[in-house]
Amino acid sequence: QVQLLESGGGLVQAGGSLRLSCLVSGRTVSTYAMGWHRQVPGKQREEVAAITSGATTSYAPSVKGRFTISRDNSKNTAYLQMNSLKPEDTAVYYCAIRRLGVRWDYWGQGTQVTVSS
């Protein structure tokens, strides 16, 4: 059974930082791409950042230069370092992994990030 467990969310003031973690169990993630997504109530979930099995990264334009995705395969974990946070970054953040293609195969339950102005 594959499980993804996000942690590190919380309440932070604008301009602050948070680091999210995603621990994966039930799969060895070294051959998976890993990604972070976020969703605000009433809006579609959006992909924030992704990292391939070869450590190539990609970012949504809205977070580029502020967020950094990384992975530690020895810990089966992905991270999202979020700096210079803005109120519009407030959302539930989800971790996901995929083996092939563009569809994300497995998802976590999400962690709330709230940025106050």
Based on secondary structure, the structural category is: mainly beta
Order of helices and strands: EEEEEEEEEEE
Q: Tell me the radius of gyration.
A: 13 Å
Q: In what range is the share of β-strand residues?
A: over 45%
The overall pLDDT average reads: 97
How does the overall form come out from the CA principal axes? globular
- Which regions contain 5 or more consecutive residues with pLDDT less than 50? none
Number of continuous helical runs: 0
- Classify the oligomer: single chain
Largest sheet: 7 strands, mixed
Helix coverage percent of residues?
Answer: under 10%
Total strands: 11
Terminal CA distance: 40 Å
Provide a concise account of the structure shown.
By secondary structure, the chain is mainly beta. 0% of the residues lie in helices and 52% in strands.
What would the keywords be for this entry?
117 residues, 4-stranded antiparallel sheet
Written account of the structure:
It is built from no helices and 11 strands. Strands 2, 4, 5, 6, 9, 10 and 11 form a 7-stranded mixed beta sheet that branches. Strands 1-3-8-7 form a 4-stranded antiparallel beta sheet, with no helix packed on it. A hairpin with a 5-residue loop joins strand 5 and strand 6 (57-59). With 117 residues, the protein is mainly beta. The mean pLDDT is 97. 34% of the residues are buried. The chain is globular, with a radius of gyration of 13 Å.
